[in-house]
Amino acid sequence: MDNRDTDEKTPLLGNHAGKRSSPVSVFEGRWTACISILVAESLERVAFYGITCNLVLVLNGNLFYWNATQASQALLLFMGITYLVSPFGGWIADALLGKFFTIVSSMVLYLFGMLFFSLTTYSVRDTLCGDLLPVAVDDCLFPNGTLKPNVSCNQDVRYCVPAVVSGLVIIGVGVGTVKANITPFGADQVKDRGPEATRRFFNWFYWCINLGAIVSLGVISYIQQNISFFIGYVIPTVCIGISFLVFLCSRRAFINKPPDGSAFTEMTKIIAYSCCSRAHKQTQNGHSNENLVGYSSPRKLGLLDASKVSNGGRFADEKVDDVRALLKIIPVFFALIPYWTVYFQMQTTYVLQSLHLRIPEFFYNTGLNSSSNSTQTQTHLVSNQVYILQTAT
Q1: Which of 15, 74, 130, 322 gets the highest tally of CB atoms within 10 A of its CB?
Q2: Is pTM, for the whole model, over 0.70?
């Protein structure tokens, strides 16, 4: 007797192969929404890395005259804001505005901050910041590079501090809020199509992130260093503007879920209830049964178990289990702190160290004389500026 499924008897290449309809894509009806999110994310990453890639150089150069420490602190402040704001941005979306309106609002803030910061690198910065300029390099140094004894160099010659910091803070808030919401918003568009659709979407999603980073670090960074910082910051501003328009115009294609409460709020309530309640100190049957004949001490409840409805608490068992799973992976997050501490040195300390490098004489004899000489001269001037400001402080 043949117990095989009838599907197993169907030939792989039967006579009905030509009558089969083409398989329906898992993104059928969602192409517009998915492509809009991918384009918006790519352009947003171009804008983000366009700000960070040369921020230390522009602040440490002859536009603002910040010293090395101050320029590094500005970049780290900006990055810190983007990551610290993300949980709060996610909470706003989940509890108040919904993901779509939160993303749109944060992109408006993002665009305003980019416009404002770009203007500080143009000639109108004199209007925003005044005419204060630092002491020239030649006034502070002897030809051998030592400081002149009777020359007073200003210890804090940072130019345009209020405008620069304000622009970076505004951009940081916008970046952090977009970062917190655009990923789960993309998941909302495809997760009802199954795990295969979700996997494929996020494959393309992270490819778009990397593509934006490559364009920014390879093209925009070159423009900023070799053509103009102003043009190099206008391009990311235009990118975030296009990203905003693409996202806004695709509103009808998106699946917009209303705010239904924040998981962060729920987690806080569960932990607070568990810590304040004494239910976890009680056994399942109560201490009054301990003197009964044949009584065996029951299993004690864990800290979070006291919050479960099944144990007399106020919260669903599934939500309590989710909080427990989250708490278990927190040590993994702490283990990543050293990695990110080193990672962010690539945009600060490593860049500043490169300003003090000297091109070996070998390159001057191999036909690279003109380009290398100009690079050498520019690096020497910037490194002298860094040296003076660091010594003065």
Answers
A1: 74
A2: yes
